[in-house]
Design a protein that fits this description.
37% of the residues lie in helices and 17% in strands. It is of the alpha+beta class.
C-alpha cells in the first residue's frame, strides 16, 4: 500500500534515531496480524516485550472493523485518516496522489494511480498474479517496458512517469473516481474478483488486454525468458484517486513494513522473526517516548481491520481489566484484525 518526516508512500521507514517529537509519534504497523496458518501458529509463541509493555501504558483509541472483501487494506484507510481524509470511498484511498504531493511530481488534486508491471498466469477458471518481487525486474528492463507501454496509455489521456522498477506513477482523469484494489490484496493470488469493474473500469480492462498482446511480442520478454526470468505480460492499477484541497501532511507518522513480505508469503517463522526485530527497534523507541511523557500512538493492522492505542485515550474497561488480572498477549492484541 511505497515514508521522511511523514509517510513517503511505498518507501516506508521505522522511527529514526533523530526523530522530532513535537507533534507526537504515530507508529503504523501493517500486517501485524496475518491469517496464513503458519503465521497464526507462529503468533501463539510470539511475545514481543516492548509491544506488550507499551500497550499497558496506553488506552484503546479506536478500532476499524473492516471487511475482508474491501478493496483498500486497513493500513491504507489509516493513512488516509492521518492525512485528514475522512470517509474515503473503498478503493479510492489516493496513495499515488499523496506521493505526487510529497514528491512534487504534479498537481495532487488531479487523478493519480500506481501502475505495477505484472506477470499473470491464466488458468482454466481464474487468473493468478505472481508476487512482484518474483519478476526480478531491474531498472533497465522496467524503463524499456514503460517506454513500450507509454503511447498506449497516452491514447487514454494517461501520463506515465518512472518511480521504481516495480511501480510507476500515472496521472489521468480516469483515476479520479476509479476504485482499485490494493496490490497486496492480489499479489500471489487470483485476481478475477479484484479487477476494476463496471463502466469506470472498462478502459483499464481494455488496456490490460492490449498490453497482454503488446508484451507477448516484446523482444525484452523473449530475452528475459532466455535468462530464466518471468515475462511481464500485464499490469496492475492501485492507489487511485485525487487529493481534496484540504489534505495535509501527517507529521510524526511512520510506517513499519518489515512484516509485509513474510505475511504475503505466509512464512510464519520469517513473520515472527520480523516481529521480534520490529519490537526491538520501533516498539522500543515508541515505548521510550511514552516513558518520557511524550504523546504516542500505535496502530496495528491486519488484512481486515486495525486497532489504535494512544497515550491520550482514556483507559477503558479493557485496559483496566488487563492491568488487574493479566498482562496482554500478542494474540489478544491482534485478535479480530
Amino acid at each position: 500500500m511505497p515514508a521522511q518526516s511523514e509517510v513517503s508512500i511505498g518507501r516506508h521507514c521505522g522511527i529514526p534515531d533523530n526523530m522530532a517529537v513535537s507533534d507526537g509519534v504515530h507508529l503504523l504497523v501493517p500486517f501485524a496480524a496475518c491469517p496464513a496458518q503458519a503465521c497464526v501458529q507462529a503468533l501463539q509463541g510470539l511475545a514481543p516485550p516492548n509491544l506488550l509493555r507499551l500497550v499497558r501504558r496506553l488506552g484503546v483509541e479506536g478500532t476499524d472493523a473492516g471487511d475482508p472483501a474491501s478493496l483498500s487494506l486497513p493500513h491504507e484507510r489509516v493513512l488516509a485518516r492521518a492525512h485528514g481524509l475522512e470517509a474515503v470511498p473503498d478503493g479510492l484511498v489516493p496513495l499515488a496522489a499523496l506521493q505526487a504531493q510529497q514528491s512534487g511530481s504534479g498537481d495532487p488534486t488531479a487523478g493519480w494511480a500506481w501502475i505495477q508491471p505484472a506477470h499473470w498466469r491464466v488458468g482454466a477458471d481464474h487468473i493468478a498474479m505472481a508476487q512482484p518481487q518474483d519478476l526480478q525486474l531491474d531498472d533497465d528492463d522496467s524503463r524499456v517496458l514503460l517506454e513500450a507501454m507509454r503511447p498506449w496509455f497516452a491514447e487514454d489521456g494517461i501520463t506515465l512517469a518512472y518511480d521504481t522498477p516495480l511501480r510507476w506513477l500515472a496521472q489521468g482523469e480516469i483515476f479520479r473516481t476509479l476504485p482499485t484494489a490494493s496490490l497486496d490484496r492480489v499479489a500471489a493470488g487470483a485476481i478475477d474478483h479484484w479487477l476494476p469493474s463496471g463502466n469506470p473500469g472498462r478502459p483499464v480492462r481494455r488496456l490490460q488486454q492490449e498490453m497482454q498482446m503488446l508484451l507477448y511480442t516484446l523482444p525484452l520478454n523473449d530475452a528475459r525468458q532466455r535468462r530464466g526470468l518471468l515475462p511481464v505480460n500485464s499490469f496492475w492499477v492501485s492507489g487511485s484517486g485525487a487529493l481534496p484541497p484540504g489534505a495535509h501532511a501527517a507529521p510524526g507518522l511512520h510506517v513499519a513494513t518489515a512484516l509485509r513480505d513474510a505475511a504475503l508469503q505466509g512464512d510464519g517463522p520469517a513473520w515472527a522473526a520480523a516481529w521480534q526485530q520490529l519490537d526491538a527497534k520501533d516498539c522500543a523507541r515508541l515505548l521510550a517516548e511514552s516513558e518520557q511523557g511524550r504523546p504516542v500512538r500505535l496502530t496495528l493492522c491486519g488484512e481486515t481491520g486495525a486497532r489504535t492505542w494512544s497515550s491520550t485515550a482514556a483507559p477503558g474497561a479493557w485496559r483496566r481489566i488487563t492491568h488487574l488480572f493479566a498482562a496482554p498477549t500478542a494474540a489478544s492484541l491482534l485478535e479480530g484484525l
